[in-house]
Amino acid sequence: MNEALISVVEEYGTLKRVVVDEFNKDWIDSISFQFENGVLDLSVDLEYDTIRWAVQAQVVGESGSSGPFWSSLLSSKPAWIWLLENQRGYLDGIQIEFWLGNQRTLLQIAAETAQLKIYRLEQIVAAL
Questions:
Q1: Nearest Cα to Cα of residue 56 among 35, 70, 71
Q2: Contact 30, 94 (CB under 8 A)
Q3: Residue 119 forms beta bridges with which residues?
Q4: In sequence order, what are the residues at sequence separation of 6 or more whose Cβ sits closer than 8 angstroms to the Cβ of residue 109?
Q5: Are 110 and 117 in contact (CB under 8 A)?
Q6: Among 93, 115, 120, 119, which residue's Cα sits nearest to residue 21?
């Protein structure tokens, strides 16, 4: 059980701002999810090519984001957070499920080749 990530889900409140630090438009160095009562920062550990995460309790001011996709997540709350480990035991990613009413958005952020890659996951329903 990870108490820091539990506090993000249970105490940090709604998403107010997302700040994406990009080396260029195709290379993401870090992402900061800023909630009402705290911040979840994600980056890459360049030595091991793994994901680094840190949380800090703080009050976040005004809303805003780094683009239209992120704007659609503002005011949502994190419902679940998973730490993702690969078959060799390296922490390569984090998965966050955001809820806004009945709308759920599931993101996976992975450390790949010294950068962060962001994936949006969708449920696949098998045809009968």
A1: 35
A2: no
A3: 108
A4: 31, 42, 51, 93, 94, 95, 96, 116, 117, 118, 119
A5: yes
A6: 115
**E-strand spans in the chain?**
15-24, 27-35, 38-45, 50-57, 77-85, 91-100, 103-112, 115-121
How far apart are the C-alpha atoms of 128 and 113, rounded to whole Å? 39
| pLDDT, tens digit, 9 for 90 and up, residues 4-45 | 999 999 999 999 999 888 777 778 999 999 999 999 999 999
pLDDT digits (tens, 9 = 90+) for 70-89: 888 999 999 999 999 999 99
> Do you know the residue count of the chain?
128
CA-wise closest residue to 40 among 69, 72, 77: 77
Entry pTM: 0.89
